[in-house]
Fold each of these.
Amino acid sequence: MQFHKNKEKVLIIDFGSQVTKLIARRIRELGVYSEVITPKALNKLSNFKNIKGLIFSGGPSTVTISKFQTVPKEIFKKKIPILGICYGLQLIAKLFGGKIKPSKKTREFGRAILIKKNTSLLTKNYLNTSKLVWMSHEDAVIKLPKNFKTVASTKNSKLTIIENTKNKIYGVQFHPEVTHTDNGKQIFKNFLFLICKIKQKWSPASQEKRLIEEIKNKVKDNKVICALSGGVDSSVAALLINKAIKKNLICIMVDTGLMRKNEFQHTYKIFKKKYKLNVKLIKASNLFFSKLKNISNPEKKRKIIGNLFIKIFEKESKKYSNVKYLAQGTLYPDIIESRSSTGSKTSKIKSHHNVGGLPKKMNLNLIEPLKEFFKDEVRILGRSLGLVKNINFKHPFPGPGLGIRIVGSITSERVRILQEADYIYIRELIKSGLYDKIWQAYAALLPIKTVGVMGDSRTYENICLLRAVTSEDGMTADYFSFPKNFMDNISNKIINNVKGINRVVYDITSKPPSTIELE
């Protein structure tokens, strides 16, 4: 699906990689508009006028079988510059007569050292020294296609970067879009500005006017109910929609009982008084607790919470005339992990309550103005819309709230314990000047108890897990390395002040292999 027919752009053909959207993000960071489409959508495309470049993504498929995902050969006659990444490189090699082989000797997973073989526009100011690049492939090109030359190699993959300068076709076996590759952005910069010769005309803030017009055209005279949690995503969505339709927006804040301590009332007052939004607060904690009783499966939790949200919104919509839409702050990463936004074979990781957790049948149509944006892009939009800093730069908070930070069954007492621990943790991060250095931090409650000793007495209480990660986009993340004195202090404060916790642990797992949230 293409959104902007008249805008210069780079199209990314999604062959199912988990990090395809990171390619889009890297392109946008460089001030160029990009869209992600499926190979099937590319096949149906008739107008290539404003397409200045094509990027073929990686993916789980292989070109070594008889039927593989491909693109029409006519695409190479359009004289549009093409960059293939991983599977994209192998596909280019296959279509131009090269040879690809699955082999244990040629497989590479993780970092590899890139060695320069020839100069290229694609590697200008990049291969002055050896580079560490991120590999994730079992197949490898072992025979160079006709009219191509080798630009760079690694120890196990001799044809790591190849090019056909006459037709402006390039391929890289590694993933320049991930942060694990040293300065991978330079590869995209060279492709965009030296090869595609496209101009920098795009920024998240510049999209505000377009988004407002799209909302106006879609909604017309109908009313919109907006699910407002007080996080940056739903807040930016609400302010955008309010600018577009004003009196026809009804914001609903549902108090599920699963929010952080004191946070709900605080944000409710901000939107009611500062932004003058039409906000209605619905207290529904008893309903959520009763429906979640004895439910420990995380997918069931998410779906129960998602279904309850929709039922509440649909019930509220009946109190007003002409309510046709439900607005949500869904982002790109939500869609990636819940389903493929383009219909590709991207693997589903988990259901987000506002994507995969929604019921199949709904009486309201969805409006998701931010679904093509990453978190940092939404923050830029938020700043442009005048969103207060303590909301705009708040750490990501999941739609199901503490419901997925309490591993196992949920009770009001376990929520109370976690709220207290989380409150202390976040407060200390802010106080220590560490909050803004971290992408996301939270406390979670594990479903086991352990023995402790307090005041010479035996205790048998909960384990509190702390998590803090650094990230650019939420797609990949690494744990934050705290100073020992902070860890000593926070453990001591939580145990001394939260009745019900006698042990604090810290999660040092990156994403991948884990996700940022526990459930």
Amino acid sequence: MSKLSTTPRSTSGTTSRVPKRKKVASQAQKKYEDLHFVDTSRAVWNYSLWSEEAVNDFQQGIHYHLYASFGNHQLSVLDQAGTYFSVWAPNATAVYVTGNFNDWSKDSHLLFVRQDHSGIWEGFIPGIGRGEAYKYHIHGFKGLRQDKGDPFAHLWEKRPLTASITWDTFYDWQDKEWMRKRKKHNALDAPYSVYEMHLASWMRPDPSNEESYNSYQEIAARLVPYLQKMGFTHVEFMPVMEHPFDGSWGYQGTGFFAPTSRFGSPQDFAFLVESLHQAGIGVILDWVPSHFPYDAHGLFMFDGTHTYEYADMRKGFHPDWNSYVFNYSRGEVKSFLISSARFWCDRFHIDGLRVDAVSSMLRLDYSRTEGQWEPNVHGGNGNLEAIAFIKDLNETLYRDFPDIQTIAEEATDWPGISRPTFEGGLGFGMKWMMGWMHDTLDYFAFDPFFRPFHQDKFSFSMMYFHDENFMLPLSHDEVVHGKSPMIYKMPGDDWQKFANLRLLYTYMFTHPGAKLLFMGNEFAATTEWNYQSELPWYLNELVSHGGMQYCVQQLNHLYRNQPALFEKQFEPGGFEWIDLQHRSESVMVYRRKGKQPKNDVVIVLNASPVVRKDWPLVLKGKKTWVEIFNSNDAAYWGTGDVFNPNIAVETLDAKSKEVRLHLHLPALGAIVLK
């Protein structure tokens, strides 16, 4: 996650026009449509999409489709086409709509405030259509006047301009086959291999130009065949929600209901999602309900007061990211956030949300020293309001979209992250296995001579892999800020570095749990990730890097084609150690188990640079074993001369079906047997 840099406010702006589409009102809009009266002599008509019930739900924190009422909506009232605006500014004394349509006048289009003390300002302005840039000019607390973007806008000007744009999310979806089958694709007993990527820097028309972007359609044309070839089941986009500063990587967002305009319109983003679905690939979005930036056009001090953030800066300010923390105790804020999560699943058919920085939400003392935080009413360090919010979030999403997954980026030992709320958990579907990531990278960083002394670090994750539904992440955070690219985390000469990395990836893909690999890791990028350029794709012309890419491709296919690697990936019965006794040789052996014993596979890892011929391995089960994967294959830039075409097997005990295999183990290599 990157710190924020503020950007200037826009005082004007334009956007390209597109033909209007017929507005199809949602059921929620139809339910809450309520025309009080119309005075055609005024610039703004007093028109509402709110009912008393909806307002009450909003205030109570249980209105989870706010995007049907807030924001801008192109409607026809009494045969007059125009746009309805609605915004929450509870401490404002006046709210005007200012934009291109009135030459950015600050006082010509005053919205009506509801008389129910909800703080909702609304009104219908005839003649405004799709594609108009606008902001809210707010007379706030103690006379503060400021221009704010629309928190519920579906489209924003491309930065550095900061106005919202009147737009809708209508799209004629053609992914019914995927939606019908995605329960199977997203199940916990299905293969789940995620390619994490940053849309701007994955591939650029001009690799060295930060302002050079592929459109959503161009990304689809390049990304879909690549993911199909590589065998990933899902793609995870780092935040696509609108954000002003590229250097935040999207984690400092201002548009919680808008895909970024850097690559096109909401309809263009829908096309990208649809294209992936048609290719059988699920889409996960990074979603950030933990904090937001202080940019002048954003949520911070929205009506001159701490509207969305805690007023107490011991809870309301995040020291790590120089940003502000949502006030989870406020019903309106809770409704806002859960509506945002639902929005992406509802309007864009998203298959999962990876929730960012969950640890910072759960703990009042996160990144704070004594005196910088206040205990909760029970004297503990848990943020009780955030905990309640997270539980409601997951319960709502799984109720309304039972075929999706929510995934927590949570790095502590907080119990029950991925356990149901009715069992006392937080209700996520999965949790990032940060302990595995740290221990694994630490182990592989050791010179092989020292690895025998640190085998416990390597094997420790198997003690707790079933405590949560874990996803194994080798994410963007591991290849930035001086941490070095994956290939240079490995010791040894060039050949040993690549052999070590192939060994690590084999271990990852055969370890219990879902998988996540950041873009560029699959071909051993030699530089840290830089959001301002593109990946060094030219490396794949080298046999070493091309071989690494092909190795990851084959590991994906191994994972997807071997039921033992995914059917019980979150269950204790899905894993068994066979040999941890050869510590001095750095040889480790384990079995992965599926629902049927005939599908079991055995993995042998040799973490030393020594070739081991005729290595004895005692197993119980079948007499015939074949090698189905070898990380030393010449196609992966291995030596290709240490493999097992015919495995010699001798029976030790016919009654117990105990046999001894004689194997050839490649140096710094892994083999998979079936």
